[in-house]
Amino acid sequence: MIRRAALAGTALTLALLVGAAPAATAAPIPDPAVPVTTDTDPVRAEQYWLDDYGIRTAWQTTRGAGVRIAIIDTGIARGPVEFSGAVAAGTDVSGAGTPDGRTPVGAVDSNHGSWVGSLAAGRGTGPDTGMIGVAPDAELLSISVGFGSSATVPFTEQIAEAVRWAVDNDADIINMSLTTNVPDWDQSWDDAFLYAYENDVVVIVAAGNRASGTTRVGAPATIPGVLTVGGVDPSGRASIDASTQGITIGVSAPSEQLLGVSADGRLVRWDGTSGAAPIVAGIAALVRSAHPDLDANNVINRLIKTAKPTPAMKATPDLLYGYGLVDAAAAVSTTVPAVTSNPMGSLEEWIRLYRRADSGPAPEQTSAPVVVDPLPAAEAAPLPASPLLPSRDTLLYGTLPLLMLTVTAILVALGVTAAVRRIRSATRTPSR
């Protein structure tokens, strides 16, 4: 009942994880706080994460070919050239979009899905120009969801359906740059996320932003087994506004001064762990492409085991950084011992403990049942008698013996009396 009560407010606190409203520009203006690369194209030069997080180095091994990333968001737009050939399929689960998931949903956040998709697998505008995603050869699946009044389907149902559709359409990675701002989730998500895990899908979720009211991670970032991504500024320090904290954070990635391609093709600079998550999703795609034999558990394990700890970390994992800053080059190339379980936890075990699920199957019958003969019919109960009348037992064992003793005593007394009289009569002297 406590969990249900907590979920009652979820619909009022749904949020896309944007730290601040971005300013749309035809081309980004160079920022002195952002490291400048040797790229001649100003857009590529703005993408500091490509060098700082080992992504260009990882491209020497793979660019994500053969991997599908499902973007569960407001929809990836059709028009921008950066998405040409990138989106393999899509669907709408909100009831407000189009069947292919390519019509942005929402009056305020409609560009959000395009920004996220461009960070994960944007194609650029040319070989060395325009915004490029972390895994530019990976394919995208566009699943449009709606928030609040922009959807006719309840949000919890949308997410459950979106996850299942992504799995059924061969997603290798699912990216969810959204939060409910509460730690609990609807029970329908149990089966949906288990379905993803059972089908070897990596699920990556944004941690949330303080600027949007998330002081601690909320669902789906609290679901065991997902890789939750925290955010850092360009210097690698935990972002004050564009990140949050929580024990479920696995790794951290850039969440400030990011770029995104809007639905109309314009570039924007924006903040939020909504952007950190697809950067990590793109790196996960590079790992899956370079190591197609790895299952989802070992992909996640590579990402956290090769992450770089920061001097600001107080523990491992840390509430702000998780296991550290994600490192694409190390995740792709470093030898990491294999694991047999998801290092981010087991949803199945959580369900067993907290949903009061059956601990095991019912015991099997080992022998045939024994047939017992029926008991004989019960005797009819005696009719009730008056308590003032003697019963059979009182007559037999009480009244009759007492009567016999009384008669005997009387007879003895009479005999004794007669004998005394005879003796007296015999001994009396005759009168003279």
TrEMBL record:
InterPro entries: Peptidase_S8/S53_dom, Peptidase_S8/S53_dom_sf, Peptidase_S8_His-AS, Peptidase_S8_Ser-AS, Peptidase_S8_subtilisin-like, Peptidase_S8_subtilisin-rel
Active-site annotation: D73, H112, S274
Stretch forming the signal peptide: 1-26
Swiss-Prot/TrEMBL keywords: Hydrolase, Membrane, Protease, Serine protease, Signal, Transmembrane, Transmembrane helix
Transmembrane segments: 395-420
All residue ranges annotated as the Peptidase S8/S53 domain in the record: 64-324
Name under which the protein is recorded: Peptidase S8/S53 domain-containing protein
Family: Belongs to the peptidase S8 family.
SUPFAM superfamilies found in the cross-reference section: Subtilisin-like (SSF52743)
